[in-house]
Amino acid sequence: MSSIGKSINQFISEQQNKTDSNSDDLSGLIADIASACKKIAHLVNRSAITGIGGASASENVQGEVQKKLDIITNDVMVEQLNHHGHLAAMISEEIEDIIQIPEHLPKGKYLIAFDPLDGSSNIDINISVGTIFSILRCTDASREVRSDDFLQAGTEQICAGFCVYGPTTMMILTMGNGVNGFTLDSEIDEFVLTHPDMTIPEDAAEFAVNISNQRFWETSVQRYIDECIQGVDGDREKNFNMRWVASMVSDVYRILIRGGIFLYPLDTKSANSSGKLRLMYEANPMSFIVEQAGGLSTTGYQRIMDIKPTDLHQRVPVILGSKNEVERIIRYHQEDKLS
Ligand code: AFP
Questions:
Q1: Model-level pTM?
Q2: pLDDT digits over 224-271, tens only?
Q3: I need a labelling partner for 292 at 20 to 30 A (CA). Which of 35, 161, 162, 182 fits?
Q4: Which spans in the chain are helix H?
């Protein structure tokens, strides 16, 4: 029987019943995340009316100017996830330190890392934004959670997902057994399954990169993009199309639907030359989703999910998407190293 149309809560309970190994109750936590995302969708949708679309007076831990909505949506996530005893602690792009669960509230066995509003510089121009999250297990929730509890490789994630606030609000989810997409049905205020078993085609002819950074990239990435641009007249003998939304959620969603490759590679532009995107709440969850959909995700030198994090807000280069294209770039990196 087709699962299309099932609510996210029903779908997850059924998935958990099927897998003995995954008998822990994740459904409550995912239901809380879904509720937070519904609230965020509503806030984003009304931001021009309520006047919360612009910049705030503060900067986040990355030194980026925070939008008022960055702060408000962070608070929505914390408030919504605090209360129900599923979490031991949280980290957010918007907050430097670990967000501990207050003493008077029950604590659970999971950790969550999230970016409450990714792509927020796009809000003022009415382009899609999103929420990204990664769920880990907490090995010892009996004491205050420390950084090293969070600093687990992406392979340890037990669930990851993202929500896109676009023409429709969608949640994409993996619990390690495939990727499923749910659309928010505003008539019933529920996420319902609309995109079961999402799979990324192995080949693609579309790339997403901020090409204004080209002069700062390594030779391997320059070569790959040059060849795409040369199209049928170059070594690839094939034309490529380019898209860059500058909202990772939209760029990754497009890849899940029709394949392609997304790059935010290593560059010499950023002060520490380690890439722009954050490992714990952008690169890892997106990598988990992409791999579960049959794609690959790498820094160019290493599988992203194998990186042992050293910092809660660590940045990494990200190259992800259709398997054959990502493998080609990995090969270009290897060839570059040998020459
Ligand atoms: P913001 O959240 O600051 O808008 O950044 C979005 C993002 O982290 C990611 O979603 C985009 O892919 C990338 O940055 C866009 O970066 P550029 O502004 O360099 O194009």
A1: 0.95
A2: 999 999 999 999 999 999 999 999 999 999 999 999 999 999 999 876
A3: 35
A4: 8-18, 27-45, 47-50, 68-82, 147-150, 219-230, 248-258, 284-292, 323-338
